[in-house]
Amino acid sequence: MIYLIPIITALLGWTIHHLAAHTLFTRILPARQQALAQQLGAFAGQQLSFSTIKSKLTDPEKIKNIIPLVEAHLDTFLREKLPKAMPVLSMFIGDSIVNQIKSHLVAELDTLFPVMINQYLDNVEKDLNIEKMVTEKIAGISAEQLQQISQQLLGNEIKKFKLLGAFTGFIAGIVAVICMHLFM
């Protein structure tokens, strides 16, 4: 009968750790969700500064990647849409004129795009609050979704935590049996 003590203490350790994990995910996290959302929002706001985002969006290499699309659109506009809108111009616009106009417009747009994008992003920055957005999104997660996300992210760790409880309970039981033999 005394040798059942390690098994009982292992089950007890597993049960205690199971209850601790369950309490964490069903009571503590949902109760602290608003504070967690605010802290994560503040962290995201610090890590994702708008100036970093702006520098990535206004990178000259990224802007150069847009130019072929603009050039194709200009070509379609100059060859198809403009002559339909202004039939008189079609008599004067040939391939060489279209290519000259397109090359001048593309060169102008190459210098205009960074200024235009910067202006646009300056306007967006006034309305965009990353910290507030992240805080609201996390605070808006339902308790069930929060539990599911936590279970998905920490499923293996929770199992290990419960096994740790069983292991420590088992060791405590063995120590108790040894102590009983030594002192009885």
Q: Which oligomeric state applies?
A: single chain
Beta-strand percentage range? under 5%
Largest sheet descriptor: none
Please give the domain count: 1
The run of helices and strands is HHHHHHH
- The residue-averaged pLDDT reads 90
Helical proportion?
Answer: over 70%
What's the β-strand tally?
0
Query: What overall geometry do the principal axes of the alpha carbons give?
Result: rod-shaped
The residue ranges in which pLDDT falls below 50 over 5 or more consecutive positions are none
Describe this structure in words.
This protein has 184 residues and is an all-alpha fold. The chain has one domain (2-183). Helices cover 87% and strands 0% of the residues. The radius of gyration is 33 Å and the shape is rod-shaped. The model has no long low-confidence stretch (mean pLDDT 90).
Compact description:
With 184 residues, this protein is mainly α. It is built from seven helices and no strands.
